[in-house]
Design brief:
This protein is mainly beta. Helices cover 5% and strands 59% of the residues. The longest helix has 6 residues, at 182-187.
Length: 196
């Protein structure tokens, strides 16, 4: 089939464990990750059958992505059929740090500390591949010890104990604080608006 990308792994494979310690990854002006420690357990593949991975565990990485308002996204029109069936039984991210920075000036917009994430039974198939979310999954849990969001020069948002689990969301100690005084705020406006 000329419209197929072929099998990712077209041969028999059986790997007990892969360990990658203290690595880093940089993708142009989009992403920088350091302190990457990955453990992958029990990778198995039989040709023309399901590729399975028991565990993928990412331990205490520090990840920064960059926002660029001028960045143009490339749209790909070349669609190939996906023919593999891939199952990842457990995906875990442990004690990560995430930052979103503006590319110009490296100003921090968002920071999350103490991130833990789990997702089970992640499956990518020819049927799911064409959907907006190209995988099916079960049991999602995301936690972060704290979140600091700086959407503008006027406000800062902070919270603790962010939890998202299977569609339920909670957080503690939510604060939305002005970064400037009322007088400074009024000077920036054509018409007076409320600071709060």
């Amino acid at each position: 089939n000329n419209d197929s990308v072929g099998h990712i792994i077209p041969f028999r494979l059986n790997i007990e464990k892969i360990l990658v310690d203290n690595s880093q990854l940089k993708i142009k002006n989009s992403l920088y990750a350091k302190d990457i420690n990955i453990q992958i357990d029990k990778i198995k593949n039989k040709p023309n059958q399901k590729l399975t991975v028991e565990n993928i565990i990412l331990k205490h990485p520090s990840i920064t992505t960059y926002s660029d308002k001028n960045k143009k996204t490339k749209k790909t029109t070349d669609k190939k059929d996906f023919i593999d069936d891939i199952l990842i039984q457990n995906l875990k991210i442990e004690n990560a740090t995430y930052k979103l920075n503006k590319l110009a000036g490296n100003q921090n917009l968002l920071k999350l500390n103490g991130i833990n994430f789990t997702m089970n039974d992640i499956e990518l198939t020819p049927e799911t591949f064409t959907k907006k979310i190209p995988v099916t999954y079960k049991n999602v849990k995301f936690t972060a010890s704290d979140l600091d969001y700086n959407p503008s020069s006027v406000y800062s948002l902070k919270t603790k104990n962010v939890i998202f689990e299977n569609g339920n969301f909670s957080l503690a100690n939510f604060e939305m604080k002005p970064k400037i005084s009322r007088a400074q705020f009024v000077k920036q406006l054509d018409k007076e608006k409320d600071l709060y």
